[in-house]
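Hi,

Apologies if this is the wrong queue. I'm a grad student, and the batch job for Aquaporin-like protein from Aspergillus coremiiformis produced an output file that my downstream script rejects. I'm not sure whether the problem is my script or the file. Here is the sequence I used:
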Amino acid sequence: MKQIIDHTGHQEGAGVTVHTTDKLASSALGVSVSSSDEREIIHPQFLWGKIREYIHEPASEFFGTMILVLFGDGAVAQVTLSNGEKGGYQSISWGWGLGVMLGVYASGISGSHINPAVTLASCILRKFPWRKFPIYAIAQLLGGMCGAAIVYGNYRSAIDVYEGGSHIRTVPGYSSTATAGIFCTYPAEFMTRTGQFFSEFLASSILMFMIFALKDNNNLGAGPLTPLALFFVIFGIGACFGWETGYAINLARDFGPRLVSYMIGYGPHVWTAGNYYFWVPIVAPFFGCTFGGWIYDMFLYTGDDSPVNTACLGLRRLITPLRRKHHTSETHV
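Support response: The file is valid. Your script probably expects a header line. Output copied below for reference.
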C-alpha cells in the first residue's frame, strides 16, 4: 500500500512543527505512511526530539520485533510450562500470528519489516535502500533479544519449577523437561540437515510471496488490512508447516533469543542441538524470502520497481554499474 501524505506545517504541541511532503511513502509490508527521507521533524526546544528524528526508524524495527517475540515466545512459554493445560500447539500458532500482526502495527513508521530476510528481499526486489539494511538488521536482532529476555524474566519462577531448580537449564534433545525451546526453534529428532534447511526455506518463501501479494494493489491487495492478513499468513504457516523445525523464518526471531538463552545459562547445547541446527534459521530465511519474492515478481508482478520487470530481468542494473566502474578506471589510467 502506498499512501500520499499531503499535510504540511501542522503545529503539534509547543515547539513542535511537523513538515511532510506529498511524495509516496512505501514500505515492505505496505503499512508505512512516512519515512525519514520524506518527513522532517523539527524540535527546537528538545534535544531528544532531534535525536529521535535520526533513530525513529531503527527504534520502530526494534520495538516491532520485540512485540513479535514477546507474544510468540510468551505463547510457547505458557503452553510448555503449564504442561499443555493452558493451551496447545494451536495456541502457539495464534501467539505468533498475533505477534506478527501487532509487531507490524507497532513498526509502521519504518515499513514493518521486523525480519532481516524481508529487508534483504525488499532491497533486492523493491529498491529499498541498501544503506538501511545493516541498521534495520541490527535493530531487529536487538529487539528479538530484548523480547526474549523479558519473557524469561516473566516466566523465570515457572521455569525453575518445570526444570527442577534455579540452577538447571536444559535444551530439547538433552532433557525431557527442556525449556530452551521457549526462546528459539529446535528441529524434530527425525529431521535431516537437508530437511531442516528445506523446511525453513519453504516457509520463508511462502511468507515473502504472500507479503508481496498482499501489498500488490494491481492484484487484489490487502490495503489497510495487511497486518490482519499477515496474522492469517503466519498462523497458516505455523499450523501447516511448523512442526518439523518450528518455522523460525526470521534470523532476529531465532538467533537473537538463542543468544539470550545461551547468555542466561542454557549452555553450548543451544548451538549443538539438532546436529548444529542453529545456522539453518540464520541462512535459510534469506534464500527463502528472496526466492519467494522473485517467484511472485517473475510470474505475477507488473510494477517497474522490481528488477524482474526491467531489461534482461534486472541483470542490466547489475552489469551497468560494473561497466561504468571499469570505464572510469581505464580513463584514469
